[in-house]
Amino acid sequence: MVTTSQAKRTPASRSTVALKYSMAVSGLIMVGYLLMHMYGNLKVFAGQQAFDEYAHHLRTFGEPMLPYEGLLWIVRFVLLAAILVHIYCVVVLTVRNRKAAGYAGGKRYHSKKNRTGIQRSYASFTLRWGGVVIVTFIVYHLLHLTAQVTTPGGASDSPYQRVVNGFELPAVTIGYTVAILAVGFHLWHGIWSALTTLGANHSGNRIDSRLTGIAVVVTLVIVIGFLLPPWAILLGLEG
Ligand code: HEM
Q: For residue 145, what is the domain's CATH number?
């Protein structure tokens, strides 16, 4: 016989543990993409021909087994799925968390500790608002360098030239810098969190955790690697 409490149970696929796992795995897929994308961008330093050949190669990779742009579309599909899963999980988990923590009238613990009465941690604040900045940036970035709906500094048939035209403008380089720093803060806590969810953390606290070191190194590699091309171009150092 099915009792009322059994009938109301959350299915395993929507359990908090499953959602946390999905967030961790989708997040790590995006970290993998960021590492490859950052490495590819560094080809700017090899010159126009090398960068344009690389952009072309991304489209012809795997031919004739794959159609033109086949690999690119597979990557796009996986990335889009990862982003949607990540956002879906964060929304469900946040709502669940608020209910569990006893929010009443938008306030948690009914505390007068700060203006809103909500006790938020540094990590949860940067992760949530950083996430919003990153999504906004990705929309702009796709309109800029993929769809070329906006072409700051001038349009060009050459991917290299499009990148250079954009980053020669201080406003574009500064805007990208803000977004990349938001990515950095997100990764710093997010990588640690994802690896902990997946059971890799054997430490009693965050400071002693070996994962803190891994998260910091991966974050620094990604942030510095992404910042190098725009700033080198703005300062005329890309050669
Ligand atoms: C200074 C930093 C960056 C530069 C110079 C840059 C450059 C580019 C270029 C040239 C493309 C077009 C690729 C092509 O169609 O051949 C592209 C696409 C893309 N970038 Fe970036 N990018 C930067 C940072 C980022 C960051 C931080 C993210 C994610 C948070 C990101 C995510 C993407 C995505 C999702 C695409 C679409 C790939 C596709 O065409 O399907 N990029 N980027």
A: 1.20.1300.10
